[in-house]
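Comment thread on ticket #2218

A.B. wrote:
> Attaching the input chain for the structure job we discussed in standup.
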Amino acid sequence: MNKFDYTYDVAVFGAGPAGLAAAITAARKGMKVLLIEKNGYLGGTLSSGIALLGFLDVTGRQCIAGFAQEFVSRLQDEGHSLGHRYCPKHNSVSCVGSEYVKILAAKMCKEAGVNVLLHSETHSVETKENHILSVKVYGKCNETTIAAKYYIDCTGDGDVAYLAGCDYEKGQADTGVLQPPTVIFTLENVKMEELFEYLDSHPEELTYNKIMDVGSGYDVEYFRSSKNYCFVGLTATCNKLRETGELPVKRENLIFIGSPNTNEVYVNSTRLLNTDATDIWSLTNAELEGQIQAGKLTEMLRKHVAGFEKCFISSICPNLGVRETRRFAGQKRLEIDQAFQGLVPEDTIALSGYKIDIHSGDSLKTEFKTIDKPFGIPFGCLVSKNYDNLLFAGRCISTDARVIGSTRVMPTCMAMGQAAGTAVSQCIKENTLPKDAETERIRKTLAEDGAILSME
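C.D. wrote:
> Ran it. Output below, let me know if you need it in another format.
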């Protein structure tokens, strides 16, 4: 086995939305940064085809900007994003071309001087008291030991924090059940206008259960007027096919996401119940079952849904889209009541204006509740309670089981990543610890870099 040792200012684990933002932000501020990723590409779920939800609040005001806005703007300039669009159901939708996310992510890391290590996963963490000394990663018969001043865990599952022995929670508070993951796949040769023509005379296909808040105007004309949409519907078709045993997934409706490319949609309709993505056997089963479901769903769509008669799968996302696993203890904890009240604490480093979106992990139901105004994510939720040089960004931050239904979306994760990268850069320059950092100075820098920290 080859063994290597490297020293950095900042080591960022996971190159999804949060990790990209954290690594590039820290590198731009003069830090020597290593970004470690398990895949052979950058972007994580950002490159799956899933629409970016959460840039706008329920009234259509932008509540996420900064690095996240820069990323979408650059995609849009190159013709690979449709920008932001108000949505009566999701508040906003920002569709992107999945493969071009990978290209832009690679470009931006190179421009910023981020060192990147792909095909590598964390396998051990060396600690002393409340300090992380080093992290070992393994890939392709290579063991690399990374010593850094600060570590930012953006792996989603919190792999570094878990191996370091940090305190954490999993699952919904009342049941312990985790939200189900999904396998995203891309369909080509889809004639959405034919589906819209069918929906014109079948309004029952766009009905929703009582725990799903959907505003007026989420109708056929909304979908017809732009490819920038996240379509949730075909409720009547799903009910009928469920009764006949022809619906291959336990869902109330189907989800199609628009693409900048002609006659292409991304499908977010597989449903992998009772999955724990931190258990390798459960994860394996979900990956395989999700791929099988993708094939079955495609055959069902070809047979029963207008506009999909000649569609075909062009790609299946190589990684499961995971909604929920571990949430780690921070210096602070974000609670659901703070979200519904729209509280913005003085140490807010990012806003979240997306709805509370919780997919049941053991049934076909989805809870979808409106947040009246954006709420703040305190800096302390990103700072580990257990280690003085460890931060989190993304869905593994310190929250309760329900508020993650809002904070887990990608623009919000990018905003958290930008905050984490900014914070550790300031701590290194000022020789302070994150728990003692002047949050107002972090906020000032974030604001100067375009982040939105208040709707006042």
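A.B. wrote:
> Thanks. Noting for the ticket: The mean pLDDT is 96.
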